[in-house]
Design a protein that fits this description.
By secondary structure, the protein is mainly alpha-helical. The chain has helices at residues 3-22, 25-31, 38-46. This is YjiS-like domain-containing protein.
Length: 48
């Protein structure tokens, strides 16, 4: 994997973690996400 792609994946991961982290527990619950699962959801977002 090249450097640019790695950097873009890292940025997308951090952005997803930040955005989900700002949501209330109720909002996350509505999406079917537990607060403890935010990092795994973010990892899955870059695997696509």
């Amino acid at each position: 994997m090249n450097v640019a792609r790695s950097f873009n994946n890292w940025r997308k991961f951090r952005q997803t973690v930040t955005e989900l982290g700002r949501m209330s527990s109720r909002e996350l619950q509505d999406l079917g996400i537990d607060r403890a699962d935010i990092r795994s959801v973010a990892r899955a977002s870059i695997a696509r």
